[in-house]
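Anyone opening a protein record will find just a pair of labelled lines. A complete record is shown below as an example:
=====
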Amino acid sequence: MKLWRNIFISFISIVCISVIFFSKENNALAAEDDLGNFTDVPVDKVWKVTFNQEIDPNTIHNIGVGLDGVYLDTIIVELGEDKRTVYVKNTESYNFNSHYVLDFKRSLKSLNGISLKNYQYVTFSTKKEIIDVGDGEKYGEWTVYKTEDNFRFFIDDDSKDYLFIYRDAEKIFIDIEKYFNHNMTQVVDVYLRRTGDRGGAFYSSGDNTMQIYPHHFGDDTRYHFSHEAVHAITDSIWNMDVLMGKDELWIVEGIAEYVPKHHIDFPACSSCGELKPLKYGKEEYIYRFNNKSHREDLVQIDNLLELDQTKDTHSYLAYESMIYYLVETYSWDQLMNFVSDRSNGKSNEVALKENFEITESQLIINWKAYYRLK
């Protein structure tokens, strides 16, 4: 009889625990609205989400909106009068054609202290920006758009999403001209295409043409256009027949990488996010050198003894960091005088000695020491 009594008590205990557990599961905090993936969302969207319980107002500020893994600092979260509805607002417009995550986080709680049962979030993509730049002129497979001064854009039908490059080209180039204190007179033909045998971006000094394949760069296409635009203006300043030799590639490509990342104020472009100069500092370059994802084109760096060896590795990071080192250690004007001397035919040794009072081997040793390279 005692055995049956114990079994009965155990059974009742299990039932009670199950009921309590089931009750808690049933009472878990959850959104009543459909959450999931939304597309074509307006850039001024205010999100309204109603939950099945009243929300603890002290926990709503844990809600966030993320872009590329970074939470926006322009988000305001408010609780409705019913205390169950949450409103999520962005004090600035979302970027056009961008992908966001609205994250409610497990730290959101009800007034009774109950947390969200599961991780709950919304993913959403905003509308594409409609860029009105006119119809252009048809020229075979291309639509041609002309800027006020320096560029003609030849754009294929698959590249219309990247018309913001054309729209911002003149503003970007004016900034480059100011930095070099030089006005370029020739017109550059820019071919913007989504398909082709080659990828990336290229500038041909022989016929003043630029080829850009934006599907390789996406929203960063303006940086790469700016890189090629720097090539266009330096082509009009210096003797590129000299500067495209194996000893000078670090100068030409280094400056083309350095200038867009440090000295161009890109116009706000809501279709691709507002781009500003990255303004890498010394520590950012050191991080990039030490980050394995940036090491593939640096296989020769540890044993680098002469500047012409960089042509074999084609390391844009090495080129750019060397330009940064010279500007920070000496000055931009001294660097420009050095490049002009090289363009006019002076050797590396002579130009380095006259402008920086160092030899080529000293430059490499000092550059490595500056970035703590072996």
Observations:
- The longest strand covers residues 85-90.
- Residues 131-237 form a domain with the Zincin-like fold (CATH 3.30.2010.30).
- Residues 203 and 228 are 6 Å apart (CA to CA).
- The chain has a mean pLDDT of 79.
